[in-house]
Write a structure and sequence with these properties.
The chain is an alpha+beta fold. Helix content is about 50%, strand content about 10%. The chain is built from 17 helices and nine strands. Strands 5-6-7-8-9 form a five-stranded antiparallel sheet, with no helix packed on it. Strand 7 and strand 8 form a beta hairpin. The protein starts with a helix and ends with a strand.
């Protein structure tokens, strides 16, 4: 019984050692731990009717609507808890990871089944030679126990390094979203100096930038012949016919990627057609569409044209070199984001590390059946199938998120969010905050707000009255270090930075 337990633990040991690859570091904020107060309503994901329509490439946009039909950036809960185990197990046949690793898993299962069947036949043979050969097929689990820790470390490092690239890709697009919003704010604040016509061009260029960058790092063409697009609305994009092969191939050492001689001469291109009525091509006029379509680096062309528009703004009392350099600095950050995305997209995990990890995993799995024959017999095949599915799945997850821009990050949703935040055209949206008329601001009587009332008395006592928060007679005393101690009946003494006038 002890040997059977050791053999079972051997098959699960590597699985447990690589489990940390699925648990990246996370932070928990106070807001996530806050419970709703009594009487308040909370909306769950199940209660929100969310409809997401995302198209790949330039043929469409990603939109999300709530129950009232208003578009917004979807807050979809993709975090699975333990109570979702039924759904996750039931959806296993439709798993994309399982589809990607089905060939090596089936190979391991077939090999293990053949080994166990041959072992059973040899052991049951009356010929002592064949029986002795069957007994020699059984090996102890000691060797695989020694190797399982090293194999687990290889898988963990492989997956963690890939997750870091995924997190970095998301941070890059977060900076793109923030810089686009900040640049749009400056365009609206300095609208009288920039001019409505130039501001409209700058806004359209800024809204088109994320779409151009998405296609630049995700080069896929959905329409190669243009038959489904009306002739008057077709736009031809010159795209490379042969993409450079991945560095995992052995014959890429001399030419840096492709082995086709015509590609090395740079003479072959393929036809990729898009519809100019769709985003982002509908944001450009006819003359500009032809220029950006022929550009090799379309997001960089967009940044260059946006910088040209900023540099063309004439000096005025409010528009000086300071404002000009500030806006050009934000365009520079967008241009830097192109290089950051290219670095992740074009740089793979070191070739030797990836090969060694996959070779070690393959050799360990194909020799493990010999250590399980003695205890499991013909059940070795199913057990090895589950083990191979788990370990190859961990490796494939690292490969999938290694380039987060290939169907891992929802770039279409991010592009649509940037476009909607930038292209403000209604007083009901962001434009209402840029009211240039002083009378409009005067109509907003901030003194009549009843939600929060604050008063600072002469004895430095602070009174807050709110619908959600009630602090009575919060006494503030200053200590020697110019730090204020906040004393209330509900909270322990907490030290906060001095903020009193």
């Amino acid at each position: 019984m002890s040997s059977r337990r050791r053999a079972a633990a051997l098959a699960l040991c590597c699985c447990l050692s690589s489990a940390s690859a699925f648990a990246p570091a996370s932070t928990t904020t106070a807001a996530s731990r806050r419970r709703p107060r009594s009487g308040s309503t909370s909306t769950t994901v199940a209660e929100t009717q969310l409809h997401v329509s995302v198209s790949h490439l330039f043929g469409g946009t990603g939109t999300a609507t709530a129950g009232d039909g208003q578009p917004y950036l979807p807050q979809v809960n993709h975090r699975h808890s333990a109570r979702d185990w039924i759904h996750n197990v039931a959806s296993l046949p439709h798993s994309s990871i399982l589809r990607d690793i089905r060939e090596p898993v089936l190979a391991v299962v077939a090999w293990s089944t053949v080994v166990s069947a041959v072992h059973r036949l040899l052991v049951a043979s009356t010929n002592p030679v064949w029986a002795g050969l069957g007994a020699n097929l059984q090996v102890g689990p000691t060797a695989h126990s020694f190797l399982v820790s090293s194999l687990g470390l290889l898988l963990v490092f492989r997956t963690n390094s890939a997750y870091q690239r995924f997190a970095e890709g998301r941070q890059i697009w977060e900076r793109i979203l923030s810089e686009s919003r900040n640049l749009s704010r400056m365009m609206n604040l300095y609208r009288p100096d920039i001019g409505d016509e130039r501001r409209s061009r700058m806004t359209q260029l800024l809204a088109a930038f994320p779409y151009m960058l998405r296609h630049h790092i995700r080069p896929k063409c959905l329409e190669c012949n243009g038959k489904n697009i009306p002739k008057e609305n077709r736009i031809l994009l010159p795209e490379p016919l042969f993409e450079p092969v991945e560095t995992r191939h052995d014959d890429d050492k001399t030419n840096g990627g492709s082995t086709d001689p015509m590609v090395l001469r740079g003479g072959l291109t393929s036809e990729c057609w898009v519809d100019k009525r769709t985003l982002p091509w509908s944001l450009f006029p006819g003359a500009a569409v032809a220029k950006v379509a022929n550009a090799k680096n379309r997001p960089l062309w967009t940044c260059d044209r946006l910088g040209r528009e900023i540099a063309s703004v004439a000096y005025s009392e409010n528009w000086t070199s300071r404002e000009r350099l500030t806006m050009l600095g934000k365009v520079e950050k967008l241009s830097n984001a192109i290089g950051e995305c290219e670095r992740i997209h074009q740089t793979a995990v070191p070739l030797n590390y990836a090969r060694h990890s996959l070779r070690s995993l393959t050799m360990w799995l194909f020799t493990l059946p010999f250590a399980l024959l003695r205890d499991y017999g013909l059940m070795t095949g199913p057990i090895m199938g589950a083990t191979a599915w788990l370990l190859f799945g961990v490796y494939q997850i690292g490969h999938s998120i290694e380039d987060p821009f290939q169907n891992t990050l929802r770039l279409s949703v991010l592009c649509e969010a940037i476009r909607k935040d930038v292209m403000t055209s209604s007083k009901d949206d962001r434009d209402a905050a840029y009211a240039a008329d002083d009378d409009d601001i005067a109509d907003e009587d901030w003194t009549t707000v009843t939600g929060v009332k604050s008063s600072i008395t002469s004895n430095k006592s602070l009174n807050f009255e709110s619908d959600d928060l009630l602090f009575e007679q919060a006494k503030i005393g200053e200590n020697k270090d110019n730090v204020v101690a906040l004393n209330t009946e509900d909270l322990m003494n907490q030290t906060v930075d001095s903020w009193m006038p």
